[in-house]
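User: Okay, second chain of the day. Same drill as before: sequence in, structure tokens out.
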Amino acid sequence: MTSIQGTPISPGIAIGKVLIKNTVKHDILFIQGKDKEQEKDRFHTARTKAIEEVTKIYNEMIQTKGENEAQIFDAHITMLEDIELIEGVEVAIDEQSCNAEWALDCVANQFIAIFEAMEDAYMKERAMDIKDITSRIQRLLAGTEAFNILDLSEPSIIIADDLTPSDTAQMNPELVIGIINEIGGPTSHAAIIARMLGIPLVVAPHMTELTSNGQMMVFDGETGAIYTDPTEECIKTYKEKQIKLVNKRAALEQLKGTKSITSDGIKVELAGNIGVPKDVKMVLENDGEGIGLFRTEFLYMSRSDFPDEEEQFLAYKEVLEKMDGRPVVIRTLDIGGDKELDYLEIPKEMNPFLGCRAIRLCLKNPLLWKVQVRALLRASAYGELRIMIPMIADMEELIEAKSVIEETKEELRQQRIPFNEHVEVGMMMETPAAAIMADLFAEEVDFFSIGTNDLIQYTIAVDRMNTDVAHLYSSYQPAVIRLIKKIVDSAHAAGIWAGMCGEAAADKKLIPLWIGMGIDELSMSPRSILETREQVQNLSQKQCAQVVDEVVLLKTKKMVEERLNKELTEVL
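Assistant: Same drill. Structure tokens below.
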């Protein structure tokens, strides 16, 4: 038996035989002197066939999995129809008198490089989508057959050098009992679909080289542990764990309709994070009590121009109506840093994360932001909308942003357009400056929402994508925990509520800390809501407060994690 440690992506236990799926590599050669119009026709014919293939997958997903899962392929169709991709290939063919394959490869690599350079994990993973659609076109240009995951005849663990979302979407969970991918991350579409289908997934490099077809394997999608040629004892152990996980999920389903209240009666609102209106379905399916973060920048991406006021209004209205009175926190445009818009000229900066991004960019482009504010206020008449302003580091920024909101309210009054006069306006707490000034900021807003991803990065002054310092990036950093406690304490002292919408909001080890601090709302991936509810119901806020008192005195992140590990073990 050989043990290998991978990166856990989708939980669950996989026990079975290996089937290796190697991507068919197409050698892209530069061939000059081709007939330009003929090459353009070849490209458009292949692209049209690709749209037909993806549309078929989309329709199958709608019927078998649901709209939420199918939207990934709706996005692929949009990419295949993207004017920048189409014109980019045509221009490359014209300028270089080259073959369609080479032109497509050049243009695709430009898009991929842009996405892979982004800091935001979700946007970084979009490079995989570009690879997926261009690989499909290249295959059609080459006239080769696609790998068909539907041809499986027995339950198998799929090991792939590069498993695409299209491959994952067509999987039958009864036959694909586990996936090991050599690349990817937790926000890739393949990962999202695997979690939705309940298929365990681990990422581990070089696995296609370390395994062979038909080889027996066991792996744990929660810990990342992989065992090739497992012993009978190992198989028995993981079969028992598999049964426990099935029973656990069934038990969690029973929590739907119950309240997220601690054992000593403290209510915590558990909400979901979304990127587009279609994501609401997943929040409701997991009994979310609200939406704690609607990332509106996704309405602006994958298009050639800004969404107008009416389009935005309808998107926000749709979410509010679907949530049927539950609170919806909508973050205003957070562009800049690692998120760019092709149609918005943002000057190149030496350090974009310390540059013109989020509210800074919006205040510099007041007409752009005014359109969004109008759409948000109009939508506020249709539900419990809360406006959240990101990246505040200076009081003058907040005052200016609020003045735009008040001016817009007055315009709507003059035009007799209905809106909620008492709509809450809050701010993301994601800079050390905001945390240090939390007591004063609390006098100016209706709520705080702590964005732990950036708060950690800015507090520790660490680029988490830099392998030399990535080990310093941790939610268990004492400095970060102290700042979070100050934020929550300042909010409550001013009589406003405090929530959290970063990745740390669903961290099992950290939840006792957040409960002990008295945080009012935790917003997370919808799939984490019921599991977090169970944990909340088993915690005592009074006991958790004692844990906070101990943890804020600790000096290192290792000491913090060890103390929280002890607490989690005692609770479970």
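The mean pLDDT is 87.

User: Thanks, on to the next one.
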